[in-house]
Design brief:
Elements: E1 3-5, H1 12-21, E2 32-33, H2 37-45, H3 50-76, E3 91-94, H4 102-105, E4 114-118, H5 121-131, E5 134-137, E6 151-156, H6 165-176, E7 179-189, E8 206-209, E9 224-227, H7 229-239, E10 248-256, E11 260-266, E12 283-291, E13 296-304, E14 310-317, E15 320-326, E16 329-330, H8 332-338, E17 344-352, E18 364-370, E19 375-381, H9 383-389, H10 399-409, H11 417-431, H12 434-449
Helix pairs in contact: 1-3, 2-3, 2-12, 6-7, 10-11
Amino acid sequence: MTLAFRPDETNPRIAALLADLGIDPGTVDLAVDARDEMLAFLVESCGGDRDRALFQYFQSGASIAESLGQVLRWRFGDIGDPGDPGRVRSLLDFASGYGRVTRFLVREVPPERVWVADVYAAGVRFQTERFGVHGLVSAVRPEDFACGERFDAILVTSLFTHLPEERFVAWLRVLLGLLNPGGLLAFSAHSPEVLPAGREMPAGGFLFVATSESGSLDTSDYGSTWVTEAFVRSALERAIDPGSPGASFHLVERALCNFQDLYLVSPEPGVDFSSLAFQGEPQVFVERAELAADGCLEVAGWAAVRNGTVREVEVWLDGERLAAGPVGGERDDVAGVFGESHRRSEWVCRCRLPERASRSAAVLRLRAVDGRGRGHVLWAGSVEGLLLAATHLEAEHFRGLSGHLEAVLAHERAWTAVEKRAFEARIAAMKASRFWKLRNAWFRLKVRLGWAEPGEADP
Protein backbone atom coordinates (compact mmCIF):
# COMPACT_ATOMS: atom_id res chain seq x y z
CA MET A 1 0.00 0.00 0.00
CA THR A 2 1.49 3.33 -1.07
CA LEU A 3 0.59 6.26 1.15
CA ALA A 4 0.36 9.91 0.16
CA PHE A 5 0.56 10.83 3.85
CA ARG A 6 1.92 8.67 6.65
CA PRO A 7 0.62 8.86 10.23
CA ASP A 8 4.19 9.34 11.49
CA GLU A 9 4.89 12.22 9.10
CA THR A 10 5.63 15.54 10.78
CA ASN A 11 3.43 18.36 9.51
CA PRO A 12 3.02 21.52 11.65
CA ARG A 13 -0.29 22.51 10.05
CA ILE A 14 -1.88 19.12 10.68
CA ALA A 15 -0.54 19.02 14.23
CA ALA A 16 -2.03 22.46 14.88
CA LEU A 17 -5.37 21.42 13.37
CA LEU A 18 -5.62 18.31 15.52
CA ALA A 19 -4.72 20.28 18.64
CA ASP A 20 -7.49 22.78 17.91
CA LEU A 21 -9.94 19.94 17.39
CA GLY A 22 -8.89 18.40 20.70
CA ILE A 23 -7.76 15.22 18.96
CA ASP A 24 -4.76 13.25 20.18
CA PRO A 25 -2.80 12.35 17.01
CA GLY A 26 -2.61 8.77 18.23
CA THR A 27 -6.40 8.41 18.29
CA VAL A 28 -7.07 9.03 14.59
CA ASP A 29 -5.49 7.22 11.65
CA LEU A 30 -4.10 9.93 9.37
CA ALA A 31 -2.90 7.62 6.60
CA VAL A 32 -4.00 8.76 3.12
CA ASP A 33 -3.89 6.35 0.21
CA ALA A 34 -1.88 7.57 -2.78
CA ARG A 35 -4.86 6.75 -5.05
CA ASP A 36 -7.21 9.13 -3.19
CA GLU A 37 -8.48 11.43 -5.93
CA MET A 38 -9.69 14.02 -3.43
CA LEU A 39 -6.22 14.69 -2.07
CA ALA A 40 -4.70 14.67 -5.56
CA PHE A 41 -7.30 17.19 -6.69
CA LEU A 42 -6.62 19.45 -3.69
CA VAL A 43 -2.87 19.34 -4.31
CA GLU A 44 -3.46 20.43 -7.90
CA SER A 45 -5.94 23.15 -6.89
CA CYS A 46 -3.43 24.46 -4.33
CA GLY A 47 -0.80 24.86 -7.03
CA GLY A 48 1.21 21.91 -5.78
CA ASP A 49 1.30 23.15 -2.17
CA ARG A 50 1.02 19.76 -0.49
CA ASP A 51 0.88 21.11 3.08
CA ARG A 52 -2.03 23.42 2.28
CA ALA A 53 -3.84 20.60 0.46
CA LEU A 54 -3.39 18.23 3.41
CA PHE A 55 -4.75 20.85 5.78
CA GLN A 56 -7.85 21.31 3.59
CA TYR A 57 -8.24 17.53 3.27
CA PHE A 58 -8.22 16.83 7.01
CA GLN A 59 -10.02 20.03 8.03
CA SER A 60 -12.94 19.40 5.67
CA GLY A 61 -13.15 15.73 6.67
CA ALA A 62 -13.28 16.60 10.36
CA SER A 63 -15.81 19.38 9.75
CA ILE A 64 -18.19 17.11 7.82
CA ALA A 65 -17.87 14.36 10.43
CA GLU A 66 -18.65 16.84 13.21
CA SER A 67 -21.75 18.10 11.40
CA LEU A 68 -22.99 14.56 10.81
CA GLY A 69 -22.16 13.71 14.41
CA GLN A 70 -24.54 16.45 15.59
CA VAL A 71 -27.34 14.82 13.61
CA LEU A 72 -26.49 11.34 14.90
CA ARG A 73 -26.39 12.50 18.53
CA TRP A 74 -29.74 14.25 18.09
CA ARG A 75 -31.37 11.12 16.64
CA PHE A 76 -29.68 8.38 18.63
CA GLY A 77 -28.38 9.96 21.82
CA ASP A 78 -24.83 9.60 23.14
CA ILE A 79 -23.74 7.30 20.36
CA GLY A 80 -20.28 6.77 21.84
CA ASP A 81 -21.64 5.33 25.09
CA PRO A 82 -21.99 1.52 24.86
CA GLY A 83 -24.40 1.61 27.78
CA ASP A 84 -26.92 3.75 25.93
CA PRO A 85 -29.69 1.63 24.34
CA GLY A 86 -30.36 4.42 21.84
CA ARG A 87 -26.89 4.19 20.29
CA VAL A 88 -26.29 3.47 16.61
CA ARG A 89 -26.02 -0.28 16.12
CA SER A 90 -25.11 -0.07 12.44
CA LEU A 91 -24.05 2.85 10.26
CA LEU A 92 -23.36 2.97 6.52
CA ASP A 93 -20.99 5.62 5.18
CA PHE A 94 -22.06 5.45 1.54
CA ALA A 95 -19.84 6.75 -1.29
CA SER A 96 -17.06 7.09 1.27
CA GLY A 97 -14.15 7.27 -1.17
CA TYR A 98 -10.88 6.61 0.63
CA GLY A 99 -12.12 7.67 4.06
CA ARG A 100 -11.61 11.43 4.26
CA VAL A 101 -14.68 11.61 6.54
CA THR A 102 -14.79 8.02 7.79
CA ARG A 103 -11.54 8.32 9.75
CA PHE A 104 -13.25 10.93 11.94
CA LEU A 105 -16.66 9.22 12.05
CA VAL A 106 -15.18 6.15 13.74
CA ARG A 107 -14.39 8.41 16.69
CA GLU A 108 -18.17 8.81 17.10
CA VAL A 109 -19.33 5.29 16.27
CA PRO A 110 -17.21 2.21 17.07
CA PRO A 111 -15.66 0.92 13.80
CA GLU A 112 -17.16 -2.54 14.25
CA ARG A 113 -20.57 -0.89 13.79
CA VAL A 114 -19.57 1.04 10.67
CA TRP A 115 -19.88 -0.13 7.05
CA VAL A 116 -18.39 1.77 4.14
CA ALA A 117 -19.41 1.46 0.50
CA ASP A 118 -17.87 2.90 -2.65
CA VAL A 119 -17.41 2.07 -6.33
CA TYR A 120 -13.65 2.16 -5.75
CA ALA A 121 -12.85 -1.32 -4.43
CA ALA A 122 -9.36 -0.15 -3.49
CA GLY A 123 -10.87 2.63 -1.38
CA VAL A 124 -13.11 0.16 0.43
CA ARG A 125 -10.18 -2.16 1.09
CA PHE A 126 -8.04 0.74 2.35
CA GLN A 127 -10.69 1.70 4.90
CA THR A 128 -11.31 -1.82 6.14
CA GLU A 129 -7.57 -2.36 6.65
CA ARG A 130 -6.78 1.03 8.19
CA PHE A 131 -9.93 1.88 10.15
CA GLY A 132 -11.31 -1.57 11.04
CA VAL A 133 -14.70 -0.98 9.43
CA HIS A 134 -16.79 -3.37 7.31
CA GLY A 135 -16.62 -2.90 3.55
CA LEU A 136 -19.05 -3.13 0.63
CA VAL A 137 -18.09 -2.51 -2.98
CA SER A 138 -20.83 -0.39 -4.52
CA ALA A 139 -21.91 0.00 -8.15
CA VAL A 140 -22.54 2.81 -10.61
CA ARG A 141 -26.08 1.59 -11.26
CA PRO A 142 -28.33 1.33 -8.18
CA GLU A 143 -29.90 -1.90 -9.44
CA ASP A 144 -26.46 -3.57 -9.37
CA PHE A 145 -25.77 -2.79 -5.69
CA ALA A 146 -26.18 -5.91 -3.53
CA CYS A 147 -26.40 -5.39 0.23
CA GLY A 148 -27.83 -7.84 2.74
CA GLU A 149 -27.34 -5.51 5.72
CA ARG A 150 -29.79 -3.03 7.24
CA PHE A 151 -28.71 0.14 9.00
CA ASP A 152 -29.85 2.54 11.70
CA ALA A 153 -28.10 5.42 9.94
CA ILE A 154 -26.94 5.98 6.36
CA LEU A 155 -24.72 8.98 5.62
CA VAL A 156 -24.09 10.12 2.05
CA THR A 157 -21.85 13.11 1.39
CA SER A 158 -21.02 14.39 -2.09
CA LEU A 159 -22.81 11.72 -4.12
CA PHE A 160 -26.20 13.31 -4.83
CA THR A 161 -24.23 16.41 -5.82
CA HIS A 162 -23.09 14.45 -8.90
CA LEU A 163 -26.02 12.28 -10.07
CA PRO A 164 -28.29 12.56 -13.12
CA GLU A 165 -31.98 12.74 -12.27
CA GLU A 166 -33.02 9.11 -12.65
CA ARG A 167 -30.00 7.92 -10.66
CA PHE A 168 -30.81 10.55 -8.01
CA VAL A 169 -34.27 9.06 -7.46
CA ALA A 170 -33.12 5.44 -7.83
CA TRP A 171 -30.36 5.76 -5.22
CA LEU A 172 -32.82 7.38 -2.81
CA ARG A 173 -35.10 4.39 -3.28
CA VAL A 174 -32.29 1.87 -2.69
CA LEU A 175 -30.88 3.60 0.38
CA LEU A 176 -34.24 4.19 2.03
CA GLY A 177 -34.88 0.48 1.58
CA LEU A 178 -31.75 -0.31 3.61
CA LEU A 179 -32.89 1.57 6.74
CA ASN A 180 -34.07 -0.12 9.91
CA PRO A 181 -37.34 1.12 11.45
CA GLY A 182 -36.63 4.41 13.17
CA GLY A 183 -33.49 4.88 11.08
CA LEU A 184 -32.16 8.02 9.44
CA LEU A 185 -30.82 8.83 5.97
CA ALA A 186 -28.68 11.98 5.74
CA PHE A 187 -27.46 13.10 2.31
CA SER A 188 -25.96 16.30 0.96
CA ALA A 189 -26.89 18.26 -2.16
CA HIS A 190 -26.07 21.50 -3.97
CA SER A 191 -28.74 24.20 -3.85
CA PRO A 192 -29.34 26.84 -6.56
CA GLU A 193 -27.56 29.32 -4.25
CA VAL A 194 -24.20 27.80 -5.22
CA LEU A 195 -24.82 27.65 -8.96
CA PRO A 196 -21.82 28.85 -11.01
CA ALA A 197 -22.15 32.24 -12.63
CA GLY A 198 -23.94 31.97 -15.94
CA ARG A 199 -26.02 28.93 -14.99
CA GLU A 200 -29.76 29.05 -14.38
CA MET A 201 -31.91 26.54 -12.55
CA PRO A 202 -34.54 24.93 -14.82
CA ALA A 203 -38.18 25.24 -13.84
CA GLY A 204 -38.20 21.61 -12.70
CA GLY A 205 -35.67 22.36 -9.97
CA PHE A 206 -32.96 19.99 -11.25
CA LEU A 207 -29.77 20.78 -13.16
CA PHE A 208 -27.15 18.22 -14.21
CA VAL A 209 -23.93 19.11 -16.04
CA ALA A 210 -21.68 16.33 -17.35
CA THR A 211 -18.45 17.50 -15.74
CA SER A 212 -16.77 16.82 -12.38
CA GLU A 213 -13.44 16.70 -10.57
CA SER A 214 -13.19 12.91 -10.94
CA GLY A 215 -10.59 11.71 -13.38
CA SER A 216 -11.83 8.13 -13.53
CA LEU A 217 -15.65 8.13 -13.56
CA ASP A 218 -17.75 8.73 -16.68
CA THR A 219 -19.18 12.24 -16.42
CA SER A 220 -22.53 11.01 -17.75
CA ASP A 221 -22.79 8.94 -14.55
CA TYR A 222 -20.95 11.31 -12.23
CA GLY A 223 -21.20 14.98 -13.17
CA SER A 224 -22.32 18.05 -11.21
CA THR A 225 -25.87 18.43 -9.86
CA TRP A 226 -27.94 21.23 -8.30
CA VAL A 227 -31.43 20.78 -6.88
CA THR A 228 -34.20 22.78 -5.21
CA GLU A 229 -35.92 21.69 -2.03
CA ALA A 230 -39.14 21.20 -4.00
CA PHE A 231 -37.40 18.80 -6.37
CA VAL A 232 -35.97 16.77 -3.48
CA ARG A 233 -39.42 16.49 -1.92
CA SER A 234 -40.85 15.21 -5.18
CA ALA A 235 -37.92 12.81 -5.63
CA LEU A 236 -38.55 11.39 -2.17
CA GLU A 237 -42.21 10.92 -2.98
CA ARG A 238 -41.18 8.92 -6.05
CA ALA A 239 -38.61 6.94 -4.09
CA ILE A 240 -40.77 5.93 -1.12
CA ASP A 241 -42.62 2.62 -1.33
CA PRO A 242 -46.28 3.43 -2.11
CA GLY A 243 -47.36 0.94 0.57
CA SER A 244 -45.37 2.62 3.35
CA PRO A 245 -47.03 4.92 5.92
CA GLY A 246 -44.89 7.83 4.72
CA ALA A 247 -41.66 9.51 5.74
CA SER A 248 -40.40 12.61 7.54
CA PHE A 249 -38.16 15.14 5.85
CA HIS A 250 -35.97 18.03 7.01
CA LEU A 251 -33.50 20.40 5.33
CA VAL A 252 -30.52 22.04 7.01
CA GLU A 253 -29.23 24.66 4.60
CA ARG A 254 -25.48 24.84 3.86
CA ALA A 255 -24.79 22.41 6.73
CA LEU A 256 -21.60 20.86 5.35
CA CYS A 257 -18.61 23.22 5.13
CA ASN A 258 -21.09 26.07 4.55
CA PHE A 259 -21.54 24.84 1.00
CA GLN A 260 -23.67 21.71 0.71
CA ASP A 261 -27.24 21.41 2.02
CA LEU A 262 -28.03 18.45 4.27
CA TYR A 263 -31.31 16.54 3.86
CA LEU A 264 -32.54 14.30 6.68
CA VAL A 265 -35.10 11.59 5.96
CA SER A 266 -36.70 9.14 8.36
CA PRO A 267 -38.86 6.29 6.99
CA GLU A 268 -41.69 7.07 9.38
CA PRO A 269 -44.18 9.95 9.54
CA GLY A 270 -44.37 12.56 12.27
CA VAL A 271 -40.71 12.87 13.28
CA ASP A 272 -40.19 16.18 15.11
CA PHE A 273 -37.00 17.86 13.88
CA SER A 274 -37.52 21.03 15.95
CA SER A 275 -35.19 19.81 18.70
CA LEU A 276 -32.25 19.56 16.31
CA ALA A 277 -30.19 22.55 17.43
CA PHE A 278 -27.73 22.33 14.57
CA GLN A 279 -24.65 24.57 14.80
CA GLY A 280 -23.06 25.23 11.44
CA GLU A 281 -19.39 25.83 10.80
CA PRO A 282 -18.61 29.57 10.77
CA GLN A 283 -17.28 31.23 7.66
CA VAL A 284 -14.47 33.75 7.95
CA PHE A 285 -13.92 36.10 5.02
CA VAL A 286 -10.71 38.10 4.91
CA GLU A 287 -10.97 41.39 3.08
CA ARG A 288 -7.71 42.92 4.25
CA ALA A 289 -4.42 41.56 5.54
CA GLU A 290 -1.62 44.09 5.99
CA LEU A 291 1.79 43.88 7.65
CA ALA A 292 3.36 47.19 8.68
CA ALA A 293 7.11 47.82 8.74
CA ASP A 294 7.08 47.65 12.54
CA GLY A 295 5.76 44.06 12.45
CA CYS A 296 2.15 44.94 13.28
CA LEU A 297 -0.32 42.66 11.47
CA GLU A 298 -3.87 43.78 10.82
CA VAL A 299 -6.44 41.35 9.46
CA ALA A 300 -10.05 42.36 8.87
CA GLY A 301 -13.17 41.01 7.23
CA TRP A 302 -16.52 39.61 8.14
CA ALA A 303 -17.79 36.32 9.57
CA ALA A 304 -21.11 34.55 9.55
CA VAL A 305 -22.80 31.23 10.07
CA ARG A 306 -26.09 29.94 8.69
CA ASN A 307 -27.08 28.00 11.78
CA GLY A 308 -25.84 29.61 14.99
CA THR A 309 -23.64 32.57 15.89
CA VAL A 310 -19.98 33.59 15.65
CA ARG A 311 -18.48 35.15 18.77
CA GLU A 312 -15.00 36.20 17.65
CA VAL A 313 -12.15 35.60 15.23
CA GLU A 314 -8.70 34.77 16.60
CA VAL A 315 -5.19 34.97 15.16
CA TRP A 316 -2.74 32.29 16.34
CA LEU A 317 0.95 31.90 15.55
CA ASP A 318 2.79 28.66 16.36
CA GLY A 319 0.34 27.80 19.12
CA GLU A 320 0.25 31.28 20.68
CA ARG A 321 -2.93 33.35 20.56
CA LEU A 322 -1.90 36.82 19.38
CA ALA A 323 -5.23 38.59 18.99
CA ALA A 324 -9.01 38.22 19.02
CA GLY A 325 -11.55 40.45 17.33
CA PRO A 326 -15.21 40.34 18.35
CA VAL A 327 -17.69 39.79 15.54
CA GLY A 328 -20.27 42.56 15.64
CA GLY A 329 -19.42 45.56 13.50
CA GLU A 330 -22.24 46.62 11.20
CA ARG A 331 -21.94 45.89 7.49
CA ASP A 332 -24.70 47.33 5.32
CA ASP A 333 -23.21 45.74 2.19
CA VAL A 334 -23.16 42.25 3.67
CA ALA A 335 -26.71 42.65 4.99
CA GLY A 336 -27.83 43.88 1.58
CA VAL A 337 -26.70 40.69 -0.10
CA PHE A 338 -27.05 38.04 2.61
CA GLY A 339 -29.84 39.43 4.79
CA GLU A 340 -30.28 41.32 8.03
CA SER A 341 -29.06 38.41 10.15
CA HIS A 342 -25.57 39.08 8.73
CA ARG A 343 -25.52 42.83 9.39
CA ARG A 344 -23.39 42.68 12.57
CA SER A 345 -20.65 40.58 11.04
CA GLU A 346 -17.50 42.71 10.81
CA TRP A 347 -14.31 41.86 12.73
CA VAL A 348 -10.80 43.28 13.00
CA CYS A 349 -7.69 41.72 14.58
CA ARG A 350 -4.52 43.70 15.29
CA CYS A 351 -1.37 42.21 16.74
CA ARG A 352 2.38 42.60 16.73
CA LEU A 353 4.24 39.59 15.40
CA PRO A 354 7.02 38.29 17.63
CA GLU A 355 10.46 39.28 16.37
CA ARG A 356 11.46 35.64 16.27
CA ALA A 357 8.61 34.77 13.89
CA SER A 358 9.53 33.79 10.35
CA ARG A 359 7.04 35.09 7.82
CA SER A 360 7.44 31.96 5.72
CA ALA A 361 8.04 29.21 8.31
CA ALA A 362 5.80 30.06 11.28
CA VAL A 363 2.29 28.57 11.19
CA LEU A 364 -0.37 31.28 11.36
CA ARG A 365 -4.00 30.28 11.88
CA LEU A 366 -7.34 32.04 11.69
CA ARG A 367 -9.80 30.55 14.13
CA ALA A 368 -13.50 31.34 14.51
CA VAL A 369 -15.20 30.82 17.87
CA ASP A 370 -18.90 30.02 17.62
CA GLY A 371 -21.68 30.85 20.05
CA ARG A 372 -21.03 27.66 22.01
CA GLY A 373 -17.41 28.62 22.59
CA ARG A 374 -16.15 25.97 20.19
CA GLY A 375 -13.20 26.90 17.97
CA HIS A 376 -13.01 26.24 14.23
CA VAL A 377 -9.67 26.55 12.45
CA LEU A 378 -10.58 27.72 8.96
CA TRP A 379 -7.21 28.77 7.57
CA ALA A 380 -3.60 27.83 8.31
CA GLY A 381 -0.39 28.79 6.59
CA SER A 382 2.45 31.26 6.70
CA VAL A 383 2.17 35.00 7.29
CA GLU A 384 3.22 35.54 3.68
CA GLY A 385 0.60 33.03 2.58
CA LEU A 386 -2.15 34.99 4.33
CA LEU A 387 -1.06 38.25 2.74
CA LEU A 388 -1.15 36.63 -0.70
CA ALA A 389 -4.41 34.75 -0.15
CA ALA A 390 -6.46 37.58 1.38
CA THR A 391 -8.43 38.31 -1.79
CA HIS A 392 -9.08 34.61 -2.40
CA LEU A 393 -10.90 34.34 0.92
CA GLU A 394 -13.35 37.13 0.06
CA ALA A 395 -17.04 36.23 -0.25
CA GLU A 396 -19.15 36.39 -3.39
CA HIS A 397 -20.58 39.75 -2.32
CA PHE A 398 -22.13 40.58 -5.64
CA ARG A 399 -23.07 37.19 -6.99
CA GLY A 400 -26.78 37.60 -6.32
CA LEU A 401 -26.71 41.28 -7.26
CA SER A 402 -24.92 40.66 -10.54
CA GLY A 403 -27.40 37.95 -11.50
CA HIS A 404 -30.25 40.37 -10.94
CA LEU A 405 -28.61 43.14 -12.93
CA GLU A 406 -27.74 40.87 -15.84
CA ALA A 407 -31.32 39.58 -15.93
CA VAL A 408 -32.58 43.12 -16.18
CA LEU A 409 -30.09 43.81 -18.94
CA ALA A 410 -31.61 40.94 -20.94
CA HIS A 411 -34.76 43.06 -21.23
CA GLU A 412 -32.87 46.06 -22.54
CA ARG A 413 -34.98 46.28 -25.72
CA ALA A 414 -37.85 47.61 -23.64
CA TRP A 415 -35.74 50.49 -22.40
CA THR A 416 -35.09 53.89 -23.82
CA ALA A 417 -31.60 54.60 -25.17
CA VAL A 418 -30.87 56.88 -22.18
CA GLU A 419 -31.94 54.23 -19.66
CA LYS A 420 -29.87 51.63 -21.46
CA ARG A 421 -26.71 53.77 -21.45
CA ALA A 422 -27.18 54.57 -17.75
CA PHE A 423 -27.60 50.92 -16.87
CA GLU A 424 -24.62 49.81 -18.94
CA ALA A 425 -22.52 52.47 -17.21
CA ARG A 426 -23.63 51.07 -13.86
CA ILE A 427 -22.64 47.55 -14.92
CA ALA A 428 -19.25 48.76 -16.18
CA ALA A 429 -18.57 50.67 -12.95
CA MET A 430 -19.49 47.67 -10.84
CA LYS A 431 -17.27 45.32 -12.86
CA ALA A 432 -14.36 47.74 -12.46
CA SER A 433 -14.80 47.87 -8.70
CA ARG A 434 -12.64 46.12 -6.12
CA PHE A 435 -15.59 44.02 -5.00
CA TRP A 436 -16.22 42.68 -8.49
CA LYS A 437 -12.56 41.76 -8.91
CA LEU A 438 -12.64 39.99 -5.53
CA ARG A 439 -15.80 38.20 -6.59
CA ASN A 440 -14.05 36.90 -9.72
CA ALA A 441 -10.98 35.91 -7.67
CA TRP A 442 -13.28 33.89 -5.42
CA PHE A 443 -14.90 32.26 -8.44
CA ARG A 444 -11.50 31.23 -9.80
CA LEU A 445 -10.70 29.68 -6.42
CA LYS A 446 -13.98 27.73 -6.55
CA VAL A 447 -13.03 26.37 -9.96
CA ARG A 448 -9.73 25.11 -8.53
CA LEU A 449 -11.62 23.48 -5.64
CA GLY A 450 -14.11 21.84 -8.00
CA TRP A 451 -17.07 23.83 -6.70
CA ALA A 452 -17.73 25.49 -10.06
CA GLU A 453 -17.13 24.84 -13.71
CA PRO A 454 -14.32 26.50 -15.70
CA GLY A 455 -15.18 29.24 -18.15
CA GLU A 456 -18.38 30.34 -16.44
CA ALA A 457 -17.15 33.46 -14.68
CA ASP A 458 -18.47 36.76 -15.92
CA PRO A 459 -16.07 38.62 -18.22
